[in-house]
Amino acid sequence: MITQTQLTLPALGRGFHIVTDDIVKALPNLPDQGILHLFMKHTSAGLCINENADPTVLEDFETLFNHLVPENFPNLKHTIEGPDDMPAHVKSVLCGDSVSIPITDGRLNLGTWQGIYYCEFRNQRHSRKIIATIYS
Amino acid sequence: MITQTQLTLPALGRGFHIVTDDIVKALPNLPDQGILHLFMKHTSAGLCINENADPTVLEDFETLFNHLVPENFPNLKHTIEGPDDMPAHVKSVLCGDSVSIPITDGRLNLGTWQGIYYCEFRNQRHSRKIIATIYS
Amino acid sequence: MITQTQLTLPALGRGFHIVTDDIVKALPNLPDQGILHLFMKHTSAGLCINENADPTVLEDFETLFNHLVPENFPNLKHTIEGPDDMPAHVKSVLCGDSVSIPITDGRLNLGTWQGIYYCEFRNQRHSRKIIATIYS
To answer: Which SUPFAM superfamilies is this protein grouped with (chains A, B, C) (predicted)?
Structure first.
């Protein structure tokens, strides 16, 4: 069985944000067993799974992603929307635009230290839309 | 229900290419609701989703991926197939070898600016095979 | 139909390891057609798919991932667990925490040169848990 819902994330601004609770609250009842697929409908933000406990991890992710894909890199052509735009596209590919999480016993089967990250790579705040598909 | 098809991408040469239309044309009729999973059967090319409008984005992706994983990096061992080979393997992992896209109302539920990218990381042209699995 | 199993990977130590056979042996019988989803329940290790033949590829992956996300990067805050910890979190996002592989004719439909990689980014050996979900 397939169940699909569109969610809107809060406009949290540039950075890495843990949104596990926001997403779980917005979902319908989970089946006993299955998969949750979350898909970001945007090309300069991402979804991934990582450490859910220490807020400095989120800050270090921002630091290291900025190191990986620097702004104002020489010879870029797609610069009309500002220096954060093209790096945001590349970061979203590095991070990924979707996550698939097993559902077991009616709950997301995440590890103890795992949370769902919404990664915003643009300076300007945006409301981002996600399609949640549950198959069971 | 599961439907599976093997597709062959055109040999487009090194770079980032938007292949949304090629893929949609090669698929059977889409179900009302479900997921499309596309899987690249190769280790030096990738699939991802990004900006579908400005061709300079594709060029900047090439520039920034070459910056991320430089050719002729010191002390690499797997060099027999040329300086583009080992970077191509790493780029394919960074990019990802598959995408999963929600299907809603019988169509791919991509955002306005989203297209499917075929990312070729080798200098030599190759015909790349993809397995498309639709579950509904 | 959904079938779910929890697997434990051998504690192989830091590096990139091909675990295709370990995983296939631990799975129940595969259906004729479907998808295998493997999900790493940890935030400093990853799963991906790449070259399955030359062991030096695994060493070069380690070299290039260390180049991508250096240890002792200035101004990191999450350093209490050692210099390999925060880079491990970022590497696990770059690599990805899950893979989805088509199943065709009762077998994983991997390309000739594709194998499943378990990527361990911490110095200390860990036993890593994976949830395998087969849908058909």
So the answer is: YjbQ-like
